[in-house]
Amino acid sequence: MSPMPSLQKTSAPQDRPQGRPQTVIPTHRDKVAAAGSELIGGPYGRRAATGTGQMTPVRVIALVAIGMFALGMVQKLPCYNWAWFRGTTSQYTHACYSDIPHLFSGRGFAEGLVPYFDRLGGDIPFLEYPVLTGLFMEVASWLTPGGGDTMQREQSYWLANAGMLMVCAAVLAVCVTRTHRLRPWDGLLVALAPSVALTATINWDLLAVALTAAAVLMWARSRPLAFGILLGLATAAKFYPILLLCPLLMLCWRAGKWREYGTAVLGAAGAWLVVNLPVMLLAPEGWKQFFLFSRDRNVDFGSVWLLVSQRTGDAIPPGRANLYALLLMLAAVAGLAYLAFTAPRRPRFVQLAFLVVAAFVLTNKVYSPQYVLWLVPLAVLARPRWRDFLIWQACEVAYFTGVWMYLAFTTSGNSKQGLPVDGYQFAIVLHLLGTLYLCAMVVRDILTPEKDPVRQDGGDDPSGGVLDGAEDRVVAGRAAHPARHAAAALEDGLRVEWGTPGGQASRG
Known about the structure:
This is Probable conserved transmembrane protein. By secondary structure, this protein is an all-alpha fold. The protein is about 60% helix and about 0% strand.
């Protein structure tokens, strides 16, 4: 095994933009965005309003996000009206399944049980969600009217949750819009993302996603304490946001921003403890249920491990799947660390944040359809190119359709209805390849920063906060010896241009 590259200090500053920065208009830079704009009147013209009036980018994108969320609710109408309550197959064939109405009764909210404190019947003794999500679910139950039959109450519970999740969707879109000051219109990618509309009301992930987007915005505004608090709250709603501290450690190490990183970590730990400690002390058995459920959960839908298990016919037990996923995740983190310290320019924060969450998604033992929400805002900030984003979204929509059709096939008992195993495996492969494609594009931007669409605007790291334009303190490999690598590249270029020694030109 080759030794790790030695670390070296350098004082070379990051390039700074010259002149007055201008707001980026996607229809001026992106051919796909320009073509798509023909549906609403064409590209942004030189006489168009500048966004200083009533319809600013933030307001437009927030309204679009709410409108798309409402369309997603309409897509759930067949289930809302009858399919949730008349058997299991119809909610899959209509692709409108949601955990929310089923868990209203299944987790004791209909009977007024208190999450984590009151024991449930069945195989799961307590609510298996993190504490802040449990509180969100409980508040929605308080807003649910008590009259009517079970069907009416479950409908009301879903509506109460949908209303609260709609607020989360608007917050998400606004935060992404404001993160990159010069690229506010990139937020339209989040607002228009079909996967967001389709999956927003399947579960409660949108709460953690909105808090994570707000945390990234606070870091972009050089407010590490606020970032840490919001990230801690997000982690109290879902586990994945804590992963953002990993790439942030690498970047702060390279830039020598230890004080800011320490502030962020303390803020995250404090906020997480404020939410979790009361339940941890007063209802320890209920509090542990989320961790026990995650550890003991079998290999499930959408994961690479299910694909391997189905192809080989050998079931992978939870313990072995946990070990494999952990080892692959550690390998991915090691690769990100190498990339963070050796890239010719320090990677942007959201680039590494997207890659680490994508690695977790790809190696996890389950991929529920709504997990795509974790990646959408980070993908938009890391790689704001409409073509690449839409390619990835097409793969995710295909997987969204595939998983429900597969469930229809396995539950209906009718071989002519739904998607058989081979078709579902193809949908899993599409999801994996789509995510890997977007990861590859982000890695390419890191290795060749002149191709990064954000840095092409002349900036350094608009979501980096204190990292934006900061000097490198610790680097390795190519980043430690830029002159040597530049000379080698020039020499290789001349060799290609003029051929082998002897002065014979290699071209006609």
